[in-house]
Amino acid sequence: MEQQQSTNETSLTKQGIVSSEISDFLISPSGAQVRVSDLGGKTVGLYFAANWYPQCQSFTPILADVYAQINKQVPKFEIVFVSSDEDQISFEEFYLTMPWLAIPFSDLQAKKSLTKRFRIEGIPSLVILDPSGVPIQTEGVDLIYKYGIQAFPFTPARVSELEDEEKAKHASQTLEKLLSSHGRDYLINQIGEQVPVLELVGKTVGLYFSASCPPCEKFTPRLAAVYRSLKQKNESFEIIFISIDRDKSGYLKCFQSMPWVALPFEDETTKSLLKYFNIQGIPTLIIIGPDGKTVTREGRNLVNLHLEMAYPFTEAQILLLQERLDEEAKSYPRSFHHIGHRHILNLVSASSGGGPFICCECDEQGSGWAYQCIDCGYEIHPKCVKELDMDDDEDNTVRTEDQLRA
Ligand SMILES: [Zn+2]
Ligand SMILES: [Zn+2]
User: Where is the Thioredoxin domain (predicted)?
Assistant: First the structure.
């Protein structure tokens, strides 16, 4: 569809950019002026980013690495930085970290019109133009995160090839393939001992992507309680901590609070797992079944919703729990005056205006049944509701209307 569009109204040759949108030249890291026509024959990425935005700061080195690798033998991929920086100094500071071209900071008109033309709503954003200047991808950032250098030349054909490979990989996935690499076939436990990956084969396994950050520190104790309770019941369940901490002290601090095993710190498998599962944020809990295939990526949400009842996280189990929740919800009050919000909250379900949300009370993810103030965008788990003036609030559960009146 994008291609079709580009052949008529948005048809875009590089000469088109230069004459109508960019004054006349781009700048290079050495300060030299480069004509847009010099980009001829290369795939070009328009990189919309800004110094002040952390996501841009973390994506830029990844993009720089891919850029260097693609251009190792023959230069065939060029990037043009389109800055949303607030002033010349921030622009220069950020541009120092980039090995590619840029639109001069002073060329406000060019930046504005490109942002408008490609309907850029968030940064970082990477729009790819093929060697003839036709835009072929707007999701360049995702593609780089997911496939790295493999994504080149970003054509729809290349992307669908990669998606097919991905599907095949997931279909032949095993726990050993996921976790063992370069001769390491073990994980480590709390006291630093090696635990063979083979010991985990045949179990339900949670891959817990985490680091020392507030949302993880909040979720880990909850997950640990679920884990301990399942272990007590002798369930065949294990969790593996996959740390994306930047430093070892963060990793050790996290691991100390966990009763399960871990991948060694900075093991190269971490990077490939992040890519393979396309991890976008933490904490994330991915559940692998006894056959080594992925059961669900929603482990965190399911643990929040159902605690140990979520085990073994299979579709059948979740459906069962869902039905039970729906049944229970019949006795929930339709509306509630929660202690933490000044308006009356209304009961919603996924089919009646609810949807995935972050609970304003416990900061955890939720979906399905919730209490909501639609005007304020305030939404909480039913289990997090606290009645105004409740004195014996031992379990935070919702009272029925009769109880409320009593
Ligand atoms: Zn909550
Ligand atoms: Zn409100």
Answer: 1-168, 172-330
